[in-house]
Design goal:
Butyryl-Coa Dehydrogenase, subunit A, domain 1, three-stranded mixed sheet, binds flavin-adenine dinucleotide, 37% helix, alpha+beta, 6 helices, Butyryl-CoA Dehydrogenase, subunit A, domain 2
Amino acid sequence: MDFNLTTNDAEQKFRLELGAFLDQELTPEICRQHYMDLGLGPEARAFALKLGKTGWLGRGWPKKYGGGGGTVVDEYIMVQEFARREAIVPNIVARFMCGPVMLRNGSEGMKAEFLPRIASGEIEFSLGYTEPSSGSDLASLRMRAMDDGDDYIITGQKIFNTQSHFADYHWLAVRTDPDAPRHHGISLFVVDQRAPGITIRPI
Ligand SMILES: Cc1cc2nc3c(=O)[nH]c(=O)nc-3n(C[C@H](O)[C@H](O)[C@H](O)COP(=O)(O)OP(=O)(O)OC[C@H]3O[C@@H](n4cnc5c(N)ncnc54)[C@H](O)[C@@H]3O)c2cc1C
């Protein structure tokens, strides 16, 4: 049984070129830093930016937002080629979770502000869904956002936030309408990790 992807010539070429780049650029130190335990060091940051410059990090996204205008198959090729080398795609939360949601549902302003910087390897996101008393049953989440007229004031606690110790932004699921049925009234926020009032603790 052949479980390989069905690829066209352009996709096949991308696989070969990306593979050659990774063989040359990936070092054990970069692979280790991309595992989320210790966070990104300067080598992994530099690698992310170098990959961003090739245009391959945003390969499957529209050119308009800093992407390479490639196919969805290219996205799988990218993950496969990193996995073959026991490495993780840089910006993995931003690249594969936040970015695609922005592409589908974000405002033009949001897309223009964040997508090119994700595709260039410049910024990383942390993932904030789970709470101490809200795991599998995510609709039970309690973090609240109150609109004070100018800003949203967010209060609450999250746990297991992948990459929080080095991310630039947080992708945060927050309750914005406490009167709605519990599986409604939840919004996703992009929060600057350096915003006042955020405490990050290791577990
Ligand atoms: C490596 C790792 C990385 C993670 N990264 C993130 C992250 O970046 N951001 C984030 O928000 N979260 C993250 N999480 C958290 C993850 O999403 C939660 O662990 C998950 O949602 C389960 O929640 P919980 O741990 O509270 O377990 P619980 O929901 O309390 O579940 C405990 C046990 O009860 C079982 N169970 C739950 N509900 C039911 C049910 N209705 N019927 C029968 N059995 C049930 C479960 O299967 C499990 O065995 C991460 C977790 C891990 C392990």
